[in-house]
Amino acid sequence: MNKIFSMKASLLGAMVGALLLSSCALYKNYERPDGIITDGIYGDMQTAGDNSLGDLEWRDIFTDPTLQAIIERGLKQNSNMKNAELRIKEADYALKCAKLAYIPSFYFKPSGTISQVWDPYDRNTYSANKTYSLPISLSWQIGSIGSLRNNKKKAEVTREQLRNAKQAIQAQLVASIASMYYDLSMLDEQFVMTKQTEQNWGKYLEMQKQLMDAGQSNMAAVASIEATYYSISTSAISIEDNIHAIENALATLIGETSGHIERGSLSSFRAPAVAETGMPITILDRRPDVRDAEYKLAAAFYDKNIALSSFFPQLNISASGQFTNSMGAAALNPGVLIAQAVASMAQPLFDNGRIRAQYKVSKAEFEIATNDFQQTIIAAGNEVNSAMYNIYAARDKQELIDKQVEALTRALDATEKLYANSGTNYLNVITAQNSLLSAQMSQISNRMETIKGTIDLYQALGGGAE
Question: Is 322 a domain residue?
């Protein structure tokens, strides 16, 4: 008999030990899985520098005071930024609720009744019966092992997700404002050059008309030049239309009515020197999409723990006390105090496999989140690599375009002197002017590519340090 009892005790001890051992996993915090690959994430652009563009705030990247003022207005007035702040407050309240789940709930529900009895025939009236009850109750749903803790940790992750979403909105907003701002600066310079080209062709058109009147030209030549002139005039109108459209779009983005947007010149942009130094791998942790993918992975980790906690007993405690005279025949005035406490525990034994299936689903969701996180890191690294290549390519082209502009400037100067001295066809001068203006247009466009590359790199690195 003692041997049987000893065997039962050993078996029970083993079961309790296994229960406690498996429950330890419910109290672990999320840690990044070891299998996440980060080696060579930037391709051949990766360096081991301690500082990079990702270590700078947006004010250190976009140093134009006029642009900074517009960005500041946008951050204050943009509706998406305002809504992001409100969602963070909602998450703070949700986290507070999750923390308060550890505290029992108290309820106070006073009640009273009065009843009157009389004989319907002789109308004899009896004394009124008055009862009252002043109860206070306590309810504490502790739940299963680790369930409250994992729900709280998941609420913390959700709050961080929303803060991260705000950073993503801010990075996108800053980049969009900067991009539109420099688009306007580029169009301003292109408009000036287009009007200059229009003026040159208008002058040439008048000369050809005079030559035709003198019998030294013909209608075909005049009509051809006239068509070119009108085409250039049309381009100038299109550029003006684009300027107005971007000004309206930028005003909408920063939460203002449409109007002229003050801006500086394209040449005022100075790319930060650290844009050339590369990035340490940890800088990707600042990217909102990378952080969001890891927050989803952390949430899946705590969901898995919540599903695991369903295997353990559910514990509920309730207590109540009241001051009352409602005790039936035993009622006395003044009343009496009554108190009671109840504790219950429910251990799932058989649930048609539902709990086990839910746990398997949570494990699969955790693996999916892990794969998504790995893919997000790879995509982020490739974006950084592409942005760096674009900057380097634009700078290499800039050197060649600058030399081209210098050469065409010398060619125009020589052509104008030749025309002045020998009276050669003025078309040669117009051709040289147009070639120079075309090269200058390319110079502006390529300078814009450098700026766009820097803006793209700013976004690729998570919107800078905040």
Answer: no
Q: What is the pLDDT of residue 241?
A: 93
Q: Is the peptide bond before 334 cis (omega within 30 degrees of 0)?
A: yes
The whole-number pLDDT of residue 234 equals: 92
Locate the DSSP E strands across 103-193: 105-108, 111-115, 129-143
Residues 385, 42: contact at Cβ < 8 Å?
Answer: yes
* Residue 323 located in a structural domain: no
Instruction: Give the contacts of 180 (CB within 8 A, at least 6 positions apart).
Output: 246, 249, 250, 253
Query: Could you give the CA distance from residue 187 to residue 450 in angstroms, rounded to a whole number?
Result: 16
- What CATH number is given to the structural domain containing 366? 1.20.1600.10
- At 235, list the tokens: 């381009």
Quote the pLDDT of residue 329.
43
Q: Which helix (H) or strand (E) holds 314?
A: strand 314-324
Alpha carbons 103 and 310: distance in angstroms, whole number? 21
Q: Quick check: pTM over 0.85?
A: no
Contact 284, 377 (CB under 8 A): yes
| Res 247: pLDDT | 92
Domain, as residue range, for 290: 25-120+149-308+361-460
Identify the bridge partners of residue 143 per DSSP, sorted by sequence position: 315
pLDDT < 50 positions in the chain: 1-22, 45-50, 277, 329-332
Looking at the 3D structure of the chain, how many domains does it have?
1
The β-bridge relationship of strands 111-115 and 129-143 is antiparallel
Q: Is residue 59 included in any domain, yes or no?
A: yes
CA distance 87 to 257: 26
Indicate whether 8 belongs to any domain: no
